[in-house]
Amino acid sequence: MSLEVALEHRFGAFALDVAFGIERACVTALFGPSGAGKTSVVNAVAGLFKPRIGRIVVDGRVVLDTEADVFVPARARRTGYVFQDARLFPHMNVEDNLRFGWRRAAHRMDEHAIEGVVDMLGLARLLERRVAKLSGGEKSRVALGRALLSSPDILLLDEPLAALDAGRRAEILPYLERLKETGLPMLYVSHNVDEVARLADEVVMIADGKVTAQGSVFDLLTGLGVAAVGAVLETRIVAQRDGLTVLGFDGGELVVPEVERARRVRLRAEDIMLAREEPRAISANNVLPATVVAVAPHGAQADVLLAMGKARLVARITQASARRLELSPGVPVFAVIKTVIIDP
Amino acid sequence: MTDLLTPDEAEALLLSLRVSFVAVFAALPFAVAAALWLSRTRFPGKVVIDGLIHLPLILPPVAVGFLLLVLLGTRGGLGGWLYQSFGIRFVFSWTGAALASALITFPFQVRAIRLALEGADPGLDAAAETLGAGWWDRLVNLTLPLAFPGIVAGLITAFAASLGEFGAIITFVSNIPGETRTLPLAIYSALQSPGGEAEAARLSLISILLALLFMTLAELAQRRMKR
Where along chain A do its domains lie? Predict the structure, then answer.
């Protein structure tokens, strides 16, 4: 699946001038601060907004080309749109909401697909429920299911978690991860680095109406990249023991609080400690050998880029510590990471 | 009913209900179309159209009746053509009374429906569009069901107002017992005949009770809409 987006538009004093292309990506995040123009981009892809100049190609199908006067209306674009505010139809129950898009799909999935989606999103108990009686998290899941069942070519998610509190977010994220496993392409708008780190494959950073950077989530969010967050590790489950899970990644193993499914782990740079010698008799479960690749000082702090097999981690320490440990490229160190600090 | 009312009075009551019923339901599709037009579009001269629709609220009903008579009387331009070509005649007929009532109460319906339409979340319409619903589909399955309480409130208010219409009816279709003599016209007629005060009082009481009943229903429908 490929996606090609180029738009130019003016909203009063705000100029939107965005262009990016995705060759092969499962989940593409449009990442940037609020008011950067992310929603306008997604609305243009959905056909809810027509830019002054633009060209949008979804999987080889030109849905917008202002030069050639092509504008496929929203109802024929086959995009599943999950809005921040869910936008469920209040006069229908959950099941009728789910079937709304299913019934109108150009290539309707068979009846069993509904059960599949209902199971995946845990909606079986809610089918008869009126929309007004749903919690915020339940609304998000129904909105997700409704969009999925319309057999979209691409799923557009505009900050689907922004309206939820932290608890609800943690409840919905695993559903989004499961959705990702189905292989459906997604364009995911977010200003939350956690969500992007956990879900995205490709990241397009947008600020003030312009694309400021684009690359894989590992390139942009790890290393000393523009939006470095420490580390994003793709993992698999190696073992379960003592109520803990051992996750393997390219470069080592990580002991984390018990998880049932392998998933991406995001480590914050501030949470990684460095030692020149292997500490023994230490409470931290993770003491991982690594090599310093680079040291980037800023102010009183220093970001230390580490190589651990193929994985790249960043540890944020003080300049004073970096000097004391005499850190420079090529120096072997041990990264110390507490298990309890890792989000399960 | 015959115990409480004379046959003439019962006839006036039933005629009133029939005229009002036909008036509001015949006007409903036009009211929905007008409300959609006014709530969804912006165009130069919208204020004028808005004013025209609301005109019957302010105009003396007698003037409305007179205009209808000029336009639709069998010797009028449009009325003559309708009568000659199709045998359709509004003057001196209860359908004419319904037409006059429909015109007078049209603004009540447009107002209520428009309020409901403008109160609906436009985001829902966009959501339905991304789910593959076209214009007509969204109108029938989303817009109108969501505006339903407003439509009901408009219908009831218009119905109640229609029951009280006098000037336009008597001017346009005259005062014919059993054909165009609705409740208000019957009250007026009773007062014109000597010793008719008791009848007028009874008919007035019925009018008051009907108006109260329908205004209460309209209020209940409005409250449902707010929820």
Answer: 3-220, 231-342
